[in-house]
Specification:
By secondary structure, this protein is an alpha+beta fold. It folds into two domains: 21-132; 232-415, no CATH class. It has eleven helices and 13 strands. Helix 3 runs antiparallel to helix 4 and helix 7 (268-277) crosses helix 8 (329-346). The chain is elongated.
Length: 418
Amino acid sequence: MKKQEELSRDGRYEYEAGYEDKDECEDKYGDRFEKYLNGGLGPEKCAEIEEDIERFQVLMNHLDQTLDQELYEKEDEDAAEQDGLKKEEELGRKISKAIGRKFRVYMIAAAAAAVCLLPAFLAGLSPLLDGIFYNPNRSVEIANEEKESAVVTNPFCTSMMVYMELFCGDKGFADIDMWPEGYGRYSIDVQTQIDGEITSHMLELVRNHLYRRDLSWNRSDFPGNAFTYKYGENSCSLEPSEAKKKLQDVPELMKIRAAVSFDKLKDMEELSEFVERHDTYYLYCPVETEGYRFWGFSPDKRGYELTESYDHEKYPYLDISQDREDLTLGDVYEKHVESMIRYLLDQEDFLEIFESSMPGGKNILNTYEYQSALEYIQKHGVKSYGTVVYATKQELLHMLEDPDVDGVYMLDGKMDLR
């Protein structure tokens, strides 16, 4: 079968052209014609079908002209040779036969016309429905005047990558796969990964409504009170001394996913200093907003390469791996978080698909939450109250010795046997 268009890990399209085996093509003409209509037939077979359609049109035109002439000739002959009721009855029978043949020809011609016009009709219908329903497969071309080149990218993948990093970076976003299931309907596989282990989160987009089997796919894996900030004694985080005792019996080869709490809010310069002091795998850094859920970012680059897929002046460091120039790491973190929020605010059609999961319901976009978060960090700065790490036992113990660490919540872990 012809392989579906798939998105590469850098967010660009890769096209793979593969067609049926020879044995698969040696089937009935009706099956080949059905594959032609569905776009699943190879170029040579498509050309054969189109030649057949052209021959059929020529034949229909010929039959149409021939039967017209035959009908009139019969009328003239019968009028000259016959008279009375007998002549009229004979003429009526012949005319009826001619009209019947004519009607059958018209029916066949109509069916042929429908077959010929159907691909063009569907081609015209596709952009029409794309204007009505959100199309995650839509691609855009972004020109780079300096390099005199252009990049074809997918806005949905860029938006989803930003969305996943902002709200659940501790899952470790990796990739997206999509399959069209009909007009306005798509199956979407959002893939997350930690230490190379891929987890799929299957979604279904049906006429602007995003349905999910996994209700926690776009949420942090950590409970809301995993960090001591705001919750204090009600946090499920362990004090450093208690956490060290529990880690004593943990095997040396164990890698642990843990939420590390800071003793106070840290600005991005202080956060960058902490990251440089402790060399480990950082998944997520939640930042302070007035929102009801986790807002944050991933201090380590993961997912698609986006540096050529957005306006650097409008959204500086939307991709955290963009050239730093003369900025400090802390400055990059701050610009990165602000750009992510502003970028999503500008993707209204993307945000609308999250607003309703009711079949046939109306999507009412509410951007207040995003606008409020943006105004908060612009006023107070981007400040973090902890970090999520995927660390070895020794790396975690070293962090617990840091006076800036107020507690730790250990979610899960696995043996690293590599």
